[in-house]
Specification:
Number of helices: 9
CATH superfamily: DD-peptidase/beta-lactamase superfamily
Order of helices and strands: HEEEHHEEHHHHHEEEEH
Helix content: 25-40%
Number of domains: 1
Largest sheet: 7 strands, mixed
Number of strands: 9
Strand content: 15-25%
Strand order of the largest sheet: 1-3-2-9-8-7-6
Structural class: alpha+beta
Length: 265
């Protein structure tokens, strides 16, 4: 009888260990395989909306406010949709002004989907000017976006520039805002949120569907968004500084590598 009980305990322990190993650990601040970070100073926050647990690899950095760069296009887009300045994702939208810029994808007419995908700064600067400082400030106040300071200029306040004080936001605040957006707690129509989600689609695998927006500028790289996997949504924000040429592309790679290591993308 003792032998049977001992065997049962061994099997039970093995099963419990297997379950533990295959459930992503989002229990709070934790260590991460440093090789995933590529030598960058990294803030990475991942919130599991099913369990309510958060993974935060560096709480001090995730609480630090920095310029959002092009991740602000998420809310610039939503405000534009709410005010009727934008329509469907694939309707003609941005008319190229003929000025040749270094990023080739900006040098042509673009739909909203295309402009969002190539992160066309001139297109969204024009949208911000259409929104205007008064309405922009009102919406930023309503949603509680970071420092809420747009004094750097209506078409530049989200961009890090020399001698310019941009609006600032932390990785923690980015995650909090996206959670509120998904919960329907921000002042945006659900149809407009659906349009945003459509254009944020970044990749889809057998394990999950990734939605996100990159941002880059003056030694900062961002990637924020959410992942739908295994009937769970993971909201995330990552920013990187230091290292070699930090960018939104690199931040996205860090996020994707982490999700791959968790077996959910």
């Amino acid at each position: 009888m003792k032998n049977i009980c001992g065997q049962f305990k061994t099997v039970l322990g093995t099963l419990m260990l297997s379950v533990f190993l295959f459930v992503p650990d989002l229990s709070g601040a934790q260590e991460i395989d440093k090789s995933l970070l590529g030598g960058y100073d990294t803030a990475l926050v991942i919130y599991d909306r099913a369990s309510g647990k958060t993974m935060n690899v560096n709480p001090d950095r995730s609480a630090l406010r920095i310029a959002p760069c092009s991740t602000f296009k998420i809310y610039n887009t939503l405000i534009g949709l709410e005010l009727g300045l934008l329509n469907k994702p694939d309707d003609p939208w941005y008319k190229w002004d003929g000025v040749h810029r270094d990023i080739e994808g900006w040098n042509k007419d673009l739909t909203l989907r295309e402009a969002f995908r190539v992160s066309a700064v001139p297109a969204f600067q024009g949208l911000a000017r259409q929104i205007g400082a008064e309405r922009m400030k009102e919406y930023i106040g309503k949603i509680g976006y970071g420092s809420q300071d747009i004094s750097a200029g209506i078409d530049t306040f989200w961009l890090p520039r020399l001698n310019n004080k941009p609006i600032m936001i932390s990785a923690d605040e980015q995650v909090d805002l996206l959670n509120k957006l998904l919960d329907g707690k921000l002042p945006f129509n659900k149809d407009n949120v659906a349009i945003l989600k459509d254009i944020m689609l970044a990749s889809k695998t057998e394990k999950g569907t990734l939605y996100g927006k990159t941002g880059s500028g003056m030694g900062v790289g961002w990637y924020v968004g959410f992942l739908e996997s295994n009937e769970t949504t993971y909201v995330f924000a990552c920013n990187i500084t230091g290292g070699q040429d930090p960018s939104g592309k690199v931040a996205r790679t860090i996020v994707e590598n982490k999700f791959n290591s968790m077996g959910i993308l």
